[in-house]
Design brief:
It is a single chain. The radius of gyration is 20 Å and the shape is globular. 62% of the residues lie in helices and 0% in strands. It has helices at residues 2-7, 9-30, 40-61, 65-76, 80-83, 88-112, 114-124, 139-156, 160-177, 185-192, 198-202, 209-212, 222-227, 237-240, 251-254, 257-262, 285-289. The chain has 17 helices and no strands. With 290 residues, the protein is mostly helical. It binds zinc ion (ZN). Residues 107, 111, 120, 124, 204 line the site of zinc ion. The site of zinc ion has 5 residues, from helix 6 and helix 7.
Length: 290
């Protein structure tokens, strides 16, 4: 399987992206979950524009990418799975699950550390929530992600195929769980015991800070359940909730490419991250009852 994936890597990546994209786009047209508020043309041009930009930046700076790091680790015997080999299929599953955990942890950090939130808020500032939201990330966040993933690959020592499979899965699941699609509760319920569903991840894109800081998972719903960051539904319901971030709601700023690229460097960091939240002192008890 390693050689098949190696020989057909670009076709597998592009085929999966276009296939899932088309599938989700049709699903969104046939059964949308929420009404969109911004022109789809403007958002799609910007969100897909940043995808093209990110692809070029990555190709230029990291031509071998994380799969190349995995090949290097295998050749040198670096990483846990290269030092303690297990059967190939088990190694594949363990590596994909371990990488999913690393991405979950990175996502939590992106919300906790003020400087990282500045980058990550470009993804969250989208005023609507659809499959293209799942692909819009600031180029600096994409580069940081690649460095973190490469470091994780050096520690885990995954098979090259596992890295490619993980990246293709992550790309597909991101378009799926950002989908503006209606999934019947009878399907959503059992599915989210294992996977992150669109309704589960939409909670994470609410303007309410406690809802934003929930449901960080991309593939497996396990990590949020295990670490206590799972939240079932948004308080205002899926149709009534407000998507985006509170401090940046001008479509020209958050849904146009130049504004999106400048967003990390504009304004204060906002109240949702570590050491930035403020509480109002509660009024004295006596004053309230009178
Ligand atoms: Zn997030």
């Amino acid at each position: 399987m390693d050689t098949f994936i190696h020989d057909h890597e670009p076709a597998i990546r592009l085929g999966s992206f276009l296939g899932i994209f088309a599938l989700m786009a049709v699903w969104e047209l046939l059964a949308p979950r929420r009404a969109l508020t911004v022109s789809r043309g403007l958002r799609w041009a910007s969100n897909l524009g940043i995808v093209v930009l990110n692809t070029l930046v990555l190709r230029l700076l990291f031509p071998a990418a994380a799969a190349g790091v995995a090949a290097l680790a295998a050749a040198r015997g670096w990483g846990i799975l290269n030092i303690y080999p297990v059967p190939p299929l088990l190694s594949l599953v363990l590596a994909v699950v371990a990488l999913d955990f690393v991405i979950w942890l990175q996502h939590v950090l992106a919300h906790a550390v003020p400087a990282l939130w500045r980058l990550h808020r470009v993804h969250h500032a989208d005023l609507d929530y659809d499959l293209t939201t799942g692909a819009r990330f600031h180029p600096l966040e994409i580069l940081l992600s690649m460095l973190i993933k490469s470091a994780a690959v050096l520690v885990i020592g995954p098979p090259v195929a596992a890295v490619v499979i993980f990246e293709v899965l992550l790309n597909a699941s991101s378009m799926f769980n950002h989908g503006n699609v209606r999934l019947p509760a009878a399907l959503d319920r059992p599915l989210r015991w294992v996977l992150v569903t669109p309704d589960m991840h939409r909670v994470h894109h609410s303007v309410e800070h406690d809802e934003t800081n929930s449901n960080f998972g991309f593939n497996l719903s396990l990590w949020d359940r295990l670490f206590g960051t799972y939240r079932d539904q948004p308080r205002a319901g899926h149709a009534g909730m407000t998507v985006g971030i509170r401090d940046h709601r001008d479509p020209r700023e958050v849904d146009r490419l130049p504004g999106m690229l400048a967003l990390p460097f504009r304004g204060p960091v906002g109240g949702s991250t570590i050491n930035r939240r403020r509480w109002k002192a509660p009024a004295p008890q006596g004053a309230q009852s009178r």
